[in-house]
Amino acid sequence: xxxxxxxxxxxxxxxxxxxxxxxxxxxxxxxxxxxxxxxxxxxxxxxxxxxxxxxxxxxxxxxxxxxxxxxxxxxxxxxxxxxxxxxxxxxxxxxxxxxxxxxxxxxxxxxxxxxxxxxxxxxxxxxxxxxxxxxxxxxxxxxxxxxxxxxxxxxxxxxxxxxxxxxxxxxxxxxxxxxxxxxxxxxxxxxxxxxxxxxxxxxxxxxxxxxxxxxxxxxxxxxxxxxxxxxxxxxxxxxxxxxxxxxxxxxxxxxxxxxxxxxxxxxxxxxxxxxxxxxxxxxxxxxxxxxxxxxxxxxxxxxxxxxxxxxxxxxxxxxxxxxxxxxxxxxxxxxxxxxxxxxxxxxxxxxxxxxxxxxxxxxxxxxxxxxxxxxxxxxxxxxxxxxxxxxxxxxxxxxxxxxxxxxxxxxxxxxxxxxxxxxxxxxxxxxxxxxxxxxxxxxxxxxxxxxxxxxxxxxxxxxxxxxxxxxxxxxxxxxxxxxxxxxxxxxxxxxxxxxxxxxxxxxxxxxxxxxxxxx
Length: 519
Known about the structure:
The chain is mainly beta. The protein has 2 domains: 18-245; 254-497. Helices cover 0% and strands 39% of the residues. The strands form 7 sheets. The chain has a 43-stranded parallel β-sheet that branches. A 3-stranded parallel β-sheet has the order 18-23-28, with no helix packed on it. The protein is elongated and about 80 Å long. The protein starts with 6 loop residues before the first strand and ends in a 90-residue tail after the last strand. Residues 506-519 have low confidence and may be disordered.
């Protein structure tokens, strides 16, 4: 009989078959590695009607260095937390199945889960959270969450192939891939990797790739579906190759969202918003900062589609190589939007990618009545593949509210599709910005460097680059310190990366600093 605080060491290398193992004391259950120690509710996958473990009594339990498989039941096929706190440390949680919620783990309100260097793989749920269902508090670090599935044809609304979150969720150094949400034809399906409607979501230094939503009447958020009144922060994260009808990478239904140092790449939507679909209403706000949105595809808004009246700020970012079979290869803004773009490069995006003559606006499309402010930005060398005799709108459609120092190469052919209003001081039109191909030029995301012959060099506001709120932008997209007169767009020629402190603190007197040696 174990006492609170004890470690229960599982010595056998043979799979231990037992279900409904109730743990009601503060203990550690330890194996000898995921390849050696296995605990399963049944000898075969998909047949168990009870979970492997159940945590009860408000205890704190650590399970480490073992595999949990072949559990079942209505909730929490692998582990069901009824009352307590669970730490999974180097645990392989695989091929568990819940009829309703939480194929791998079920975390109710008032309970918590911490995952350290684990693998949540190949679990299944009927409605929500095939990998993890969280209503409590979950923190995950250094884990793989892959191949978890809500099957196609599942009845009712189906949400969260990897994780369903209606509580507080933090992900750091997490890889999510191959998770999928199927659906019933008349129901909703959303959130291939993550469905979030909770009190907190923070994603840092992670990768969310090759997840999908397939089936359902409304099919949204191949990577992430976000619907929360609490701000969501995603930083230093790549969101790529995800698929859904709307919002291939990210679908924002409501709430504030901050994307910083992110790469949104090669996502696909058959409807709107290949990279991102933003359907947030005021006063919700979205900020896209130091990020790259590239090679995404959709019918409308290949890179991003903004579908409602919440505010959208895009700063020190790049939109490149996105495509739409209809309108807006790069960015699409609805008539009710409120958007601001500062120090951004928008290039090499394509509208009417299928060349059927139904589509325009390679770079940006602003619906009649829409409001988009733009400053210190390059909008050039985008494409409209509409065949002759269709009119061509390479770079823009609609009305741009200029705040000065923009380079817009084409307003349309043979007649202008685009109007520039407002402060046109320092604007350049009809000129090649001489951009170099999208590449790793330093920093966390890809950028288009400026050729030495580019007219965008030293052509931004002489008073300095500022964000849409008027605050100074001392660095470019790569976090390189800008020169005395900054360049147009997201890239600064000659930017300095030599400082330890991004605000230049060390540029003062450092004679009293402690000597530092070593690598």
